Amino acid sequence: MKRRLYAGLVGMTMLSGCSAITGGDFSNDEVGQTYSTDDSIDLTLDQVETQQGGRVWFGEESPITGQSDRIQFVLLHLVATNTTESAIAMPSADDFSLMVGDSQHDPLQVKYAELIDGIESPLTDPVSGPLFPPGDEIGPDEELAGWFVFTIPTNASTVVLELRRNDDIELDWSVTL
Fold it and tell me: What does the alpha-carbon distance between residue 4 and residue 172 come to, in Å, rounded to a whole number?
């Protein structure tokens, strides 16, 4: 594994429906560090949120529920910056996975692509914004940002976000929940 980023999560905010979302403590010097892909896109994991059970809303009418108190949502915000002088293809959501021990989890934007495609403002609650990647291409010196949403067991204490290309781990971020 080429890169690691450790994030400690603290704080608790109550949300509607008695669900709780936990936000990241970014005082650690390694959190927010930028790593470069092989094709010169800088990627920064700058925000981490978790929510046990409850639901995540895509648009106004498309909730995906945790369906159990044993499931938690992990929401990871990634910022991509093109450091070249030409447009570059963005990594796709299919290139990313979340590892919990030996178990690999696909982002919800891959699992529920048919439900999410075509929704103008995909992620609306508990955080809002576009899903990652927000486009197929990133222009010169352009910055794009978006969220990954995963469901994992609540007993997970550490996860690893991996960018895999050609069956190799290109980048990874380790996050303590």
Answer: 6
**pLDDT less than 70: residues of the chain:** 1-31, 61, 66-67, 118, 120-121
For residue range 92-106, what is the model confidence (pLDDT) as tens digits?
999 999 999 999 999
Contact at 8 Å (CB) between 10 and 2? no
pTM over 0.90: no
Distance from the first to the final alpha carbon of the chain:
20
**Within 10 Å of residue 137's Cβ, how many Cβ atoms?**
12
Name the residue ranges covered by the structural domains of the chain.
8-170
Contact of 158 with 175, CB cutoff 8 Å: yes
8-170 is a CATH 2.60.40.1240 domain: yes
Amino acid letter at 132?
Answer: F
Question: In whole angstroms, what is the distance from residue 50 CA to residue 77 CA?
Answer: 12
Q: Are 91 and 162 in contact (CB under 8 A)?
A: no
Would you state the torsion angle of the CA atoms of residues 12, 106, 95, 8, taken in this order, to the nearest 10 degrees?
Answer: 20
**Distance, CA of 161 to CA of 4 (rounded, Å):** 9
